[in-house]
Amino acid sequence: METQIQQNLSQKGQPSWRQYALLTVGKASRLALLRHELVTGLLGGLPGALGLWLRRKIYPLLLGSCGRGLIVGRHVTLRGTANIHLGDHVALDDFTVLDARGPEARIEIHDRALLSRNSIVRARNGRIRIGERADIGCNCLLATDSRLEIGADALIAAYTYLIAGGNHAYADPDTPINQQGFRSRGGICIEDDVWLGSHCTVQDGVHIGKGTIVGAHAMVNRSLPAGKIAWGVPATVQRDRGAAS
Predict the structure, then answer these.
(1) Which H or E element spans position 135?
(2) How far apart are CA 134 and CA 97, in angstroms?
(3) Which of 86, 112, 190, 193 is most buried when burial is the number of CB atoms within 10 A of its CB?
């Protein structure tokens, strides 16, 4: 099964600019594509306070919607810009990626959320919602082809992977796995005030309750209730939050 990028870039009988526009701006518009290329090409790597100021003023014109006070670092990659919606005072650090590919894709990042350096948010015909004041650490991957929700005030430490989907079907041994499609377990939901330690992996189908803490290097393959502290491979509840250690 082809990925959305492969589908967009290999449609027979379609001009190459149209295929590239569907991937980059999310619609077949020459004007939108030209605007995207000019803005990102001229301003994407511009250093210093001037670069930050110009990106704050002009990058909102590329997006589906954007609130006040946007902060965009250098060399930020935007794909499917019509499907990206940002609240007030959202911060995108250097080398981050927002990738909303496919007609059903949508990325929402709400007020005062932070996406740190080198992190990737990728919705492949799925929906990602990051709540108010959420802090996504550096080198994280948030990816879905179904649903991924992160609540308000969540702390997602560096090198954490949230993989909501992409479960390859493999029942037929005579067909390559990458041609058998995907199975969804319902996506990932992380409620408000959750703290995930560095190098955590959260798998599809997991729900983490409000206020729960997950230790570093944990692998979360089943849901965790609210107000707990968990760690391990796989992650298991060790005690209640607030209980004596």
Answers:
(1) strand 135-136
(2) 17
(3) 190
Look over the chain and give the mean of its residue pLDDT values, rounded to a whole number.
91
Query: Which tens digit of pLDDT belongs to each residue from 186-218?
Result: 899 999 999 999 999 999 999 999 999 999 999
All structural domains of the chain with their residue ranges: 16-237
26's tokens = 């999310």
Strand 182-183 and strand 155-156: pairing? unpaired
Strand pairing category for 228-231 and 236-240: antiparallel
DSSP 183: E
Residues 159 and 97: their CA atoms lie apart, in Å, by 15
Q: Are 11 and 19 in contact (CB under 8 A)?
A: yes
The answer to whether the beta carbons of residues 232 and 213 sit under 8 Å apart is: no
Q: Enumerate the β-bridge partners of residue 219.
A: 201
Closest CA relative to residue 24, chosen from 13, 12, 39: 39
Which burial class, exposed, middle or buried, applies to 179 when counting CB atoms under 10 A from its CB (0-12, 13-18, 19+)? exposed
CATH 2.160.10.10 at 16-237, yes or no: yes
116, 95 Cβ separation under 8 angstroms: no
List C-alpha distances in Å: 67 to 70, 120, 158. 7, 21, 26
Residue type, 242: G
Q: How far is CA 203 from CA 160, 162, 166, 186, in A?
A: 11, 6, 10, 10
Instruction: Write out pLDDT tens, residues 60-107.
Output: 999 999 999 999 999 999 999 999 999 999 999 999 999 998 889 999
pTM: 0.89
